[in-house]
Specification:
The protein is 76% helix and 0% strand. It has 293 residues and is an all-alpha fold. The protein has one domain (13-292). Helix 4 runs antiparallel to helix 10. The radius of gyration is 18 Å and the shape is globular. The two termini are 23 Å apart.
């Protein structure tokens, strides 16, 4: 389904700006999930709690909105696909952060997604992509190769990070079609967050055998902050996808790499080698090429 037309707004400029802002905020959310308070004797469990509190807070925040927006008729199938993909995405993401640094894993997780998003959008749904967009997406792929060759992620971490990126591409395409098929972007956004929050809490509660709920009480403050930011970042992304083409907008969201790099050094005490910095620079250069195109 084609993006909604918005008379009086310069094509691509508004959704592009929304995606750049979304990427920066997304990096902050991931830093909270990965952050210092998640450094525990059981890193996997700690990150389940961090992610569960984030998604639960987002769902609670938007639950009242479901009474004010239309039922997402026309988008139910896309919501179901997005929910199923998110189950795998969430698990792969917390497994990645349990074994890898944010500055090493985040570029692979986020940088691989636009390549796959473009392949799915163009190959499966026939979406048209400009030459400049393809060049920018290819540059992002080359930057990711720099990280892989640098061996900053072991095989396990790389596998989980690439799985996360693949799931990101799948839910991005599903949500792009869903937000365009719904009666309004607000309708899809509200129901999507409530549904994802519910399945996140259910999955992590099952994996932790109920220990999640006791730990949520101790971590509700950072969870509430991350959940609020999560609504802002992905809400912006979904709204942007209702206005413009999927592949280049998905790539522009990866400008959040700069924010992730700064946070990993300033607050998480991680080291950044020249290869990591060059990879992030390459990803940003690719996004810049898309903007110039």
């Amino acid at each position: 389904m084609a993006p909604r037309a918005r008379p009086g707004v310069t094509p691509f400029i508004l959704p592009a700006a929304m995606m750049v802002a979304s990427g920066a905020i997304h990096a902050v959310v991931n830093a909270i999930v990965k952050g210092p308070k998640a450094q525990a004797s059981d890193p996997l469990h700690a990150r389940m709690v961090a992610r569960g509190s984030t998604d639960g807070a987002s769902a609670l925040l938007l639950l009242p909105a479901t009474l004010l927006v239309a039922w997402p008729s026309g988008a139910i199938g896309w919501l179901a696909i997005s929910a199923a993909v998110h189950l795998v995405y969430l698990y792969a993401m917390i497994r990645t952060y349990a074994v890898a640094d944010l500055s090493a894993a985040y570029p692979v997780m986020r940088g691989s997604a636009p390549l796959l998003t473009a392949a799915i959008s163009v190959g499966l749904f026939g979406e048209r992509v400009a030459i400049a967009d393809l060049a920018g997406i290819a540059m992002i792929g080359a930057a990711i190769l720099t990280l892989v060759l640098g061996r900053h992620l072991d095989a396990k971490a790389l596998g989980w990070a690439l799985t996360t990126g693949a799931m990101t591409a799948l839910y991005t395409v599903a949500d792009a079609h869903g937000v365009r098929a719904a009666p309004s972007p607000a309708s899809y956004i509200a129901w999507d967050f409530v549904l994802i929050g519910a399945i996140s809490i259910a999955m992590f509660a099952g994996l932790t055998r109920g220990r999640l709920f006791a730990d949520l009480r101790a971590q509700w403050r950072p969870g509430a902050a991350a959940g609020t930011l999560s609504v802002v970042t992905y809400g912006l992304a979904l709204w942007a996808l209702s206005l413009g083409p999927t592949a280049p907008l998905a790539a522009l969201r990866e400008t959040g790499m700069v924010t992730a790099l700064i946070l990993s050094v300033a607050f998480l005490g991680e080291s950044v080698t020249w290869r990591r910095a060059a990879a992030v620079g390459g990803i940003l250069a690719g996004a810049g090429l898309i903007l110039l195109g």
